Amino acid sequence: MNRAPSATAADTFPRLLAQHAQQRPNATAIREKDLGIWQSWTWQQMRQEVGEIAAGLIQAGFKRGDHLAIIGENRPRLYFTMTAVQCLGGIPVPMYQDAVAAEMTFVFDNAEIHFAVVEDQEQVDKVLEIREKVPHLKQIFYDDARGLRHYQQPGLQAYEALRASGQTLLQQQPSIVDEQIGIGRASDVAAMFYTSGTTGHAKGVVLGYDNLISAGRAGAEMEALSANEEVLAYLPMAWIGQNIFSYTQWLVCGFTVNCPESAATVNADMKEIGPTYYFAPPRVLEAMLTQVMIRMEDASALKRRMFHYFMGVARNVGGRLLDKDPVSTVDRLLYSLGDAFVYAPLRNSLGMSRVRVAYTAGEAIGPDLFTFYRSLGINLKQLYGSTETSVFVCVQENGGVKADTVGPPVKGVEIKLTDAGEILIRSPGLFREYYKAPEATREAKDVDGWFHTGDAGYFDQGGHLKIIDRAKDVGKLSDGTLFAPKYIENKLKFFPTIKEAVAFGDRRSMVTAFVNIDMEAVGNWAERHNLPYAGYTDLAAKPEVLTLVREAVGKVNADLASDPALANAQIHRFIVLHKELDADDDELTRTRKVRRGFIQQKFDQLVDAMYGGLNEQYVETAVKFEDGRTGKISATLKVIDAEVFPALKKAA
After folding, report:
1. 427 and which of 175, 299, 413, 568 could share a cystine (Cβ 3.0–4.6 Å)?
2. First CA to last CA distance, the chain
3. Containing H/E element for 575?
4. Rounded to whole angstroms, how far apart are CA atoms 560 and 586?
């Protein structure tokens, strides 16, 4: 097995690239699927192109310490640009490709961005739209030229033109980029990532090479990652999780990163690649499970019975087999049969046949969802961290995975808890500062170097950290019952019919909730039951759909009733919303996290209706459409009373 090359002197990303190019020049560094065909770059080819882009940026006037925006889907050229910027001592600022122009304005202005490299016409249009508001933006380079032939704006050039300019400079001064790489230090700023802005304006998180590389190496050593891994790069480049797995650890370990053709082809491309190291936030795993359940509903009665029977076996046996716990001969035999008929075909369908280790992070995952994947024999583990901590804080260990914890601290990470239960972290991966926000930095990181996460949790008897929720979100009902909204929401989202949920109850007499149906899953169900509908709003209001959701809520309540600490936190009333919660409407962050406070304020009349005993409530809501237009959606929404169960007493 080819282990990752030694990296004693390679303490920056450009030096790591140079090391791979020297030691393994013909090994595949990155692939991209284009027009149905996988295109590959070796480490040597990547080094050559990165050098040309870096030289081109010098020609364009880029200087050490400058910020450069990178906007687009995962594309090799955008990754090359990121490294090229770092070669020159610049700071790449990846941005969310689905952000609207107005959102980008703040980042361009805050980071004083002079240069941008973007993927295509869509991103060019957005950047040109905000250009007047950010006059310091001088140069825009684009990768995909389709649709841009007649664009004549000053400072707008193709990636190939930038590269050609660099080639010319390198012919005159062959060592100019290497000299710049030599100036770099491990303590230099490597990149800046903007937080998702759950509670307000995004903040620029400044991270150094030492922060990112130390975190990346800690994870690589823990999982014995090698240069033979295959990784799929399909999440936003602006998200720190994507950067750690598909950039930092890529350059640390030297494995192969694969860029899918488009968001629509991710599942098909994943099956072709067969990643060995996989990372997915809970929302991706939820969507994959929904697809599985849709297919099973369309299957024959015999296949459905077999699926449900063997999934029952898997829930009892799969996790124990992964953890190498004792399992009876009969259970092993049943699991083997289930593997042949159900689990292996399902892993193959999900593109997970070769996964050796998989992580989920970004937000809490529901125990039911987590158990489902592990029961299939997929070594899915929970990871806890944030942008400010370079991701790796706690990781579940092989053989010691618990569905309700995120594992013990990673090597080199210190954790302590305040009296209120807030988690504080000190580690080599800890960020330098929030850019241009000294007060926010002081609030987040105290004089002793402890980062105040805002998360609430505690250690179990085995030293594993258990996250309850965001500290600001955890509350109590008026009777003193613990109210952890994320825990309840995750239980709801385990059901394929429910895509999103928002729970309310702090200092209230009972728990209530908003629910978004999953359009694909419920639409499929409606078609099979000959139920006509005209769009999301119509489908969400159907009495049959409300009954379907009520059944799911009832099952969640039955589960909560079995936990004495949470029995009184059952959902008493709920509303199926008339629109999908959307980042463009500020209801979700770009990483799909619920902005609970904003939603409660925006739909306050619906919250009041649930607690005021009303049976229905008219609502009119402003929305933004994909083409930038605004409009309104109105509906009279039913307030549904859920089935609530008496608390189950613990066995003596």
Report:
1. 413
2. 54
3. strand 571-576
4. 31
pLDDT tens column, 248-289: 999 999 999 999 999 999 999 999 999 999 999 998 998 899
Q: DSSP per residue over 1-68, as a string?
A: --BPPP-SS--SHHHHHHHHHHHSTTSEEEEEEETTEEEEEEHHHHHHHHHHHHHHHHHTT--TT-EE
Beta strands in 280-435 (DSSP E): 357-360, 380-384, 394-395, 414-417, 422-426, 433-434
70 strand-pairing partners: 94, 117
Most confident of 42-51, 99-108, 363-372, 396-405: 42-51
For tokens 């169900």, what's the residue? 525
> What global pTM score does this model have?
0.83
Question: How far is residue 321's CA from residue 312's CA, in Å, rounded to a whole number?
Answer: 15
Strand order from edge to edge, sheet including 67-71 = 91-95, 67-71, 115-118, 139-142, 156-158
CATH topology of domain 282-470: Rossmann fold (3.40.50)
Residue intervals in the chain for CATH 3.30.300.30: 475-641
For residue 594, what is the DSSP state? B
* Helices of type H across 445-594: 485-493, 519-528, 536-541, 543-561
Strands 451-459 and 465-470: antiparallel
**CB of 572 within 8 A of CB of 511?**
yes
The tens digit of pLDDT for each residue in 626-643 reads 666 788 999 999 999 999
Helix-, strand-, coil-residue percentages of the chain, each rounded to 5:
40, 20, 35
Handedness of CA 518, 524, 530, 535 (dihedral sign): positive
H or E element, residue 349: helix 344-350
Residue ranges of the chain assigned to CATH 3.40.50.12780: 13-208, 282-470
Instruction: Give dist(CA 119, CA 145) in Å, integer.
Output: 9
Question: Hey, what long-range contacts does 219-223 have (CB within 8 A, 24 or more apart)?
Answer: 219/244, 219/249, 219/391, 219/392, 219/395, 219/410, 220/4, 220/249, 220/252, 220/253, 221/411, 222/395, 222/397, 222/410, 222/411, 223/277, 223/356, 223/357
pLDDT tens, residue by residue, 316-347: 999 999 989 999 999 999 999 999 999 999 99
- Taking phi over 0 as left and psi of -120 to 50 as alpha, with beta for the rest, 90 belongs to beta
Cα separation, 596 vs 598, in Å, equals 5
Instruction: Please state, in angstroms and rounded to a whole number, the distance separating the CA atoms of residues 119 and 488.
Output: 39
3-class DSSP state of 146: coil
- CATH class assigned to 13-208: alpha beta
Task: Please state, in angstroms and rounded to a whole number, the distance separating the CA atoms of residues 133 and 108.
Answer: 9
Contacts of 466 (CB under 8 A, 6+ apart): 404, 405, 406, 457, 458, 459, 460
- The alpha-carbon radius of gyration of the chain (Å, integer) is 25
Phi, psi of 242 (to 5 degrees): -60, -40
Q: How confident is the model at residue 161 (pLDDT cuts 50, 70, 90)?
A: very high
185: tokens are 């230090």
CA distances from 471 to 24, 372, 636 (A): 47, 28, 34
